[in-house]
Amino acid sequence: MKTVIVLLATVFSFSAQALESHYGKMSFSHGEYHCTMTNNGGAKEIKKVVFNVEMRAGKEREKNFTQKVGAVVAAGETITAHSGVSAKFIGKYCKFMAK
After folding, report:
1. Please, what's the largest Cα pairwise distance for the chain?
2. C-alpha dihedral (95, 70, 75, 18), degrees to nearest 10
């Protein structure tokens, strides 16, 4: 019985921490990639942004770079995050992770 209770508590704690992904538009300016998203729904608490890029040459070319954001975006607002990733990579997509 205790095992069932512990298992249920673990499942609920993982589901409480689940993040939604919201894809943004990736652009390149001032020597780095940026990700921009306009919130079309209710208020979202953005935790981080993930930049998926590909190296121009070499093995294991696909890479993910994550930046912490920590911002609340209301409906209709736009958020932009900077990656710090240079033109050494080719930007594929970016997504904001929100609660």
Report:
1. 59
2. 60
The residue among 23, 29, 13, 88 whose CA lies nearest residue 50 is 23
- DSSP calls for 18-65: --EEEEEEEEEETTEEEEEEE--SS-EEEEEEEEEEEESSSSS-EEEE
* Number of other residues whose CB lies within 10 A of the CB of residue 70: 8
The tens digit of pLDDT for each residue in 30-81 reads: 999 999 999 998 999 999 999 999 988 878 889 999 999 999 999 999 999 9
pTM: 0.77
Statement: residue 11 has pLDDT above 80: no
